[in-house]
TrEMBL record:
Keywords: Membrane, Transmembrane, Transmembrane helix. It comes from Microvirga subterranea. It comes from the Bacteria. It is found in: Endomembrane system. Residues 66-127 form the DUF202 domain. This is Putative membrane protein. InterPro entries: DUF202 (IPR003807). The chain crosses the membrane at residues 103-125, 145-167. Its main location: membrane. Pfam families: DUF202. It is a multi-pass membrane protein.
Length: 172
């Protein structure tokens, strides 16, 4: 009879071992599943990291494009101001004729025309010497030789206007 309790204990122990084996198998499957999820999450994170880098690079390129466009707007503003000053200097001769003395007409026109020449030179200087270089933009910059040639011609026109003011006939 002493064997009966021993056999019961052995049966219960065998059942516990089977349950433990089943639980161990289930835990192994859960661990495998978790490992697969972790690997998938790692791949997704790596892809997101690459996408973030690509996104940051693209934002940098777009910022460089905006910088180029802003510099061109500044260049255009300098040229526009120079043209307005040139027209004002030339127009001062006709507008002030007979209203103020000739020396005042010549000095006002000269100041405006000299300011226009300064604007043409400043436009090229600001466009060519920007300080630190931005990252490589996608857009093309205006070729420097075109700016120098165009603004050089405008500066010659301003010089001719200045000589016209000094040596040409004024009013009265």
């Amino acid at each position: 009879m002493a064997t009966q309790p021993v056999e019961d204990k052995l049966k219960r122990s065998a059942e516990h071992a089977k349950e433990a084996a089943a639980q161990t198998q289930e835990a192994a499957e859960n661990t495998q599943e978790a490992a697969e999820h972790t690997q998938a999450a790692a791949r997704t994170t790596a892809k997101a990291s690459v996408q973030m880098k690509d996104s940051a690079d693209r934002r940098t390129e777009l910022a460089a494009n905006r910088t180029v466009f802003a510099a061109e707007r500044t260049y255009a503003a300098w040229v526009r101001t120079g043209l307005a000053a040139l027209a004002s200097g030339i127009g001062a001769k006709k507008l002030l004729e007979g209203v103020v003395p000739d020396w005042m007409i010549v000095s006002t026109g000269s100041i405006l025309v000299l300011f226009s020449a300064f604007c043409f030179a400043a436009a090229v200087w600001r466009q060519l010497f920007t300080g630190s270089q931005p990252p490589q933009p996608d857009v093309q910059r205006i070729p420097p030789f075109l700016m120098v040639a165009f603004n050089g011609f405008l500066a010659l026109v301003a010089l001719a206007a200045l000589f016209s003011l000094w040596f040409g006939r004024t009013g009265g």
